């Protein structure tokens, strides 16, 4: 047989080999492509684990809590026994919550918002109001502390409710629920204490005057825990 007669056979074998190689390559690509969507899906789920509302909630609640802790510290040397005991509970609850929110922000890759002006936040006391509290003593301190802390707690409850409406992170939502439950209970207790201190007085009608007396920010919001 001549070389011319062998040529068609070689071309056929070459074509078959090429087709087989192409089929193997396509199968391999198909397997690789099947794993890719799962990886993308996992990444998207992680990104969707928190949103802007969660970040804002933590960034705003941290300084809000920090001011409440400062108020509670003042009660250590100025308040009566009942108010001092309440202030210790507030400090013990909100200190760990601050750390929890800082940890959340770190996990989200977000800053704490240090340097931001938080004076307009609901329930935040103005510098004048804080100075007034710092100089008060005895029963005057107790009354002022309770009035201001009610406003502070109400502001925190408002902020926590916004988180429940708009946030998505499970841990942040759970924290918001805990803040609402604890601070609403303390608001009720503090209003009772104010009423007991001034027989016949209506604590609900008196509380806003604490924020109105100096035009501070507490009148614009309700406060926190």
From TrEMBL:
<dbReference type="Pfam" id="PF03713">
    <property type="entry name" value="DUF305"/>
</dbReference>
<protein>
    <submittedName>
        <fullName>Uncharacterized protein (DUF305 family)</fullName>
    </submittedName>
</protein>
<feature type="domain" description="DUF305">
    <location>
        <begin position="54"/>
        <end position="194"/>
    </location>
</feature>
<dbReference type="InterPro" id="IPR005183">
    <property type="entry name" value="DUF305_CopM-like"/>
</dbReference>
<keyword id="KW-0732">Signal</keyword>
<feature type="region of interest" description="Disordered">
    <location>
        <begin position="194"/>
        <end position="225"/>
    </location>
</feature>
<feature type="signal peptide">
    <location>
        <begin position="1"/>
        <end position="28"/>
    </location>
</feature>
<dbReference type="InterPro" id="IPR012347">
    <property type="entry name" value="Ferritin-like"/>
</dbReference>
